[in-house]
Write a structure and sequence with these properties.
By secondary structure, the chain is an alpha/beta fold. Helix content is 64%, strand content 11%. It has two domains: 2-313, ABC transporter type 1, transmembrane domain (ABC transporter transmembrane region fold), CATH 1.20.1560; 333-417 and 491-569, P-loop containing nucleotide triphosphate hydrolases (Rossmann fold), CATH 3.40.50.300.
């Protein structure tokens, strides 16, 4: 929570000004019952002097006007502070999310990160907005109301010291009970977000396999549990108002009864105006506490939200891209006894040792789940090996700066990353200052030129979010064009040709080999046709490197490679 409150530091001056204005407004409100009491005691009691009553009413109007002006200006300042506080916090959360490592991102989950940057920030800002007004109001109301009521009658004012602490204890107790309920409800909000994202992304698959009932049951379960916790927390918090009103009415009853008794039986009789003023003070103070209680009850929710936001802000994140050695790589890659596991589970990669020479064209082949993409993830520096080391030009990958890795590697990952914008803008992400000739060459190599030429807008053709208006093959070709336009010593293609027909792939690979000849080229694939022309083929199975060599060598000795070849060519091995 302290880390979140740090974001209020730049606005401390505005907060102090708002608190002073709210305090002045509260003080003016406290003066009104005193003036009204004087009207009852002096104006009406002494024969109803109209001039005195008129003068008192003008005073009340002036005090009310000052109170209104102060509260409007104070509210404007506090609202501005909360809005800026919320904007700064959300911007920092967004920036931090973009620096999270793959492990941290996977641990928190996309759904949880969406909730933290929207719902949780909103909760913290809402409570901060209420507290900005109540922090200054409640002490002023309590102290001012107690002092002014004691000026009227000390014995009756003792009720302040009984009812107000009792109400505060009740609010504190209920707030303590509400906190774990909010924590559980927020967890299920995360789960709801995750399920909804999965449903929207996989709606076609869900319908194809008629899995709607199962998906409905999943989200219904998350919704019902979340609703149960929210209802329980709101019911618990809702007890404050009836309990407070009970205490308020009992207090007024006691004041009226004791005041009336003292008016009849006491030598120092209290006046009707004094009783009216004391009742007004008790009502004002307890009404203020009732209003503030909603902020106090929601405070545990804000604490939970701030803790969840803190998980993002305190995450270690990726290292400074400039931290480490900065050098130009030649393309020499060596894995030395590399193993890797996800979160302590069974090894996804087990004791991998391989060497890729500069300028060599290699393929990594294997079935689904064999560890190919995990291997590439380690090479790109997205994850760190659990055991062993990866050497680039003889230097441990952990010693190199992220700037070096990103500058010296150009990759097309398994999931094509397409962004909202034009085709030209997507290609230029590989090279910002690319010329029209370079873009044209990249499109020719990636076999994208025909599609762009057939579009009325050409390179200005608009692409919707995630490339929804493109086919799978068009997405892959656009990603390849973006990778090819970048000059780098190492090119990585992770299952980047799977959506292409064989003729398009053959033409693309011929043009690609001419373009990046002499550069280290790594192709991850499940197709024999994509791997067959490589200088060296690495065969993987269940996280292990089974064998490596040229096509003819593997075809003669590697059983897994023979099975892949037979299944894809429809023939046996001679």
């Amino acid at each position: 929570m302290k880390r979140i409150l740090y974001y209020l530091k730049p606005y401390i001056g505005h907060l102090i000004a708002a608190a002073l204005l709210v305090s002045l407004s509260t003080f003016c409100d406290l003066l009104l019952p005193t003036i009204m009491s004087d009207i009852l005691n002096n104006g009406l009691k002494q024969g109803g002097e109209f001039s005195y009553i008129l003068q008192s009413c003008i005073q009340m109007l002036a005090v009310a006007a000052v109170s209104l002006g102060c509260i409007l200006l104070g509210t404007k300042l506090s609202t501005k502070v909360v809005a800026n506080f919320c904007a700064d916090l959300r911007a920092d959360v967004f920036r931090k999310v973009n620096t999270l490592s793959v492990e941290e991102f996977s641990k928190l989950g996309t759904g949880a990160l969406v909730t933290r940057s929207t719902h949780d920030v909103g909760t913290v800002s809402w409570v901060a907005s209420m507290l900005c007004g109540t922090v200054a109001t409640i002490p002023m109301l309590f102290i001012g109301g107690l002092v002014l009521s004691m000026r009227k009658d000390v014995p009756l004012s003792v009720l302040f010291l009984v009812t107000i602490p009792l109400l505060l204890v009740t609010v504190f107790y209920l707030s303590k009970r509400v906190r774990p309920l909010w924590k559980e409800s927020d967890l299920y909000i995360d789960k709801q977000n995750s399920i909804m994202r999965e449903r929207l992304r996989g709606i076609r698959v869900i319908r194809a396999f008629h899995s709607e009932p199962h998906e409905h049951a999943r989200i219904a379960d998350a919704t019902h549990v979340m609703a149960r916790y929210i209802i329980k927390s709101n019911v618990t918090a809702g007890l404050i108002t009836p309990l407070a009103m009970l205490l308020l009415n009992l207090s007024i009853l006691v004041v009226v009864y004791l005041g009336g008794w003292r008016m009849v039986n006491s030598a120092n009789a209290v006046s009707a105006g004094d009783i009216f003023a004391i009742i007004q003070y008790i009502t004002m103070v307890m009404s203020g506490i009732i209003m503030a209680s909603f902020a106090f009850v929601m405070y545990p929710h804000a604490v939970v939200a701030s803790d969840r936001i803190g998980e993002v802000l305190t995450a270690e994140g990726t290292a400074d891209p400039t931290k480490g050695k900065t050098m130009t790589l030649s393309g020499d890659i060596r894995f030395e006894n590399v193993s890797f596991s996800y979160g302590g589970a069974e090894n996804a990669l087990d004791n991998i040792s391989l060497h890729i020479k500069p300028g060599q064209k290699v393929s990594i082949i294997g079935g689904t789940g064999s560890g190919k993409s995990t291997l590439i993830s380690l090479l790109l520096g997205f994850r760190a090996p659990t055991q062993g080391d990866i050497l680039l030009d003889g230097v441990s990958i952990g010693e190199l700066s992220k700037f070096t890795l990103r500058k010296c590697m150009s990759s097309v990952l398994q999931g094509s990353a397409i962004y909202t914008g034009t085709i030209g803008e997507n290609i230029r992400m590989g090279k910002e200052d690319a010329t029209e000739a370079e873009i044209s060459e990249a499109m020719q190599i990636s076999q994208l030129a025909e599609f762009v030429a057939g579009s009325a807008d050409g390179l200005s053709h608009e692409i919707t979010q995630a490339g929804k208006n493109l086919s799978g093959g068009q997405k892959q070709r656009l990603s390849i064009a973006r990778a090819v336009i970048k000059e780098a010593p190492i090119y990585i293609f992770d299952d980047s040709f799977s959506a292409l027909d064989f003729l398009t792939e053959a033409n693309l690979r011929t043009a690609l080999n001419q373009k990046i000849a002499g550069k280290t080229q790594i192709v991850v694939t499940q197709r024999i046709t994509s791997a067959i022309s490589a200088d060296c083929i690495f065969v993987m199975d269940h996280g292990r490197l089974i064998d490596f060599g040229k096509h003819e060598q593997l075809l003669s000795r590697c059983k897994i490679y023979q099975e892949i070849f037979a299944s894809q060519t429809g023939g046996g091995v001679k």
